[in-house]
Amino acid sequence: MINRARWTGVDAAWLAALVVLGVAAMWSIWVEVFRTGLGSEEDSHILMAVPVAVWMVWIRRGRLRSCPPARSYWGLLLIAIGVAMERVGVMTAVEVARHLGAILVLLGGVTAVVGPAVVMVFLPAVVSLLFLLPVPGRVRQEIAVPLQEISAMVSEFVLNLFGFGVERLGNILTINGEQVAVAEACNGMRMVSALAIISFAFVFSVPMRHPVRLLLLLASPLVALLVNIVRLIPTVLFYGYMQKPTADLFHDLSGWAVLGLALVLLWGMLSLMRWMEIPIDPYPVARRERA
């Protein structure tokens, strides 16, 4: 391992070169990854992974001054593991293994230039790259089906409470003679995937103690459920009383709106903990004594 006292233009050039080579070496897989994100609504969260990773690096850029680069052979090991995983993925037809192999090759190139210490400083950015992986179908069903059932039950209760006369059969809600499938109107898995990365970006963007971060991450499924229900109730009304093109437009626009609502809920939970005087800040702040 070769340590440097500070960052230089040579370091930046090596880093850029190895990133380009890492992407080029697995180019077909990277094209496949982003085609999956563009072509599958279930995996649309993939398109958010790189912007979130860049944001995680940007907000921590000041730490580079105290963390000089160090050439490391660990990067070569990561590249070798990535290539091996890609080969295993090809032989076993496991898509996730191939995509993870491409990520490890890219990460190995970065580690070879900057060293493990710098990578650990930007660990949230590294972890956010895992959102580039497609969600396996079995995992998707395990999460989506219960979420859809709960959303349908709560939506039926709320709509009947306000006198809209909704009937439910499984995940099918019938209103004004129109049947609305919860899986089609507001897909639970699609919301969970997108909201998971939104929650991750939030908790690692705002300074807070690690236990608080963990608490908010654990609460993110509840946030996903709440915003899914908030989206579903008006969506059912639109499909029941409006023309289908209008309902489809509302469905598409509300998908983006609930991401903002999720951020509001997360911020509200943080504000509530502050109001309850739960320690949030990572560093203690001296309080002035009142006269």
The largest sheet has its strands arranged as 3-4-5
Major sheet details: 3 strands, antiparallel
Shape: globular
Rg from Cα: 23 Å
Average pLDDT figure: 83
Structure description:
This protein is mainly α and 291 residues long. The protein is built from 12 helices and 5 strands. The chain has helices at 9-25, 27-39, 46-59, 74-92, 95-114, 116-121, 123-128, 137-161, 182-185, 188-203, 210-241, 244-275, and strands at residues 2-3, 70-71, 167-169, 172-175, 178-181. A hairpin with a 2-residue loop joins strand 4 (172-175) and strand 5 (178-181). Helix 4 (74-92) packs antiparallel against helix 5 and helix 10 (188-203) packs antiparallel against helix 11 (210-241).
Give a quick summary of the entry.
The protein has 291 residues and is mainly alpha-helical.
Q: How are the SSEs ordered, and which strands pair?
A:
Elements: E1 2-3, H1 9-25, H2 27-39, H3 46-59, E2 70-71, H4 74-92, H5 95-114, H6 116-121, H7 123-128, H8 137-161, E3 167-169, E4 172-175, E5 178-181, H9 182-185, H10 188-203, H11 210-241, H12 244-275
Antiparallel strand pairs: 1-2, 3-4, 4-5
Helix pairs in contact: 1-5, 4-5, 8-10, 8-11, 10-11, 10-12, 11-12
Notable traits:
12 helices, three-stranded antiparallel β-sheet, 2 domains, two-stranded antiparallel ribbon, 291 residues, 5 strands, mainly alpha
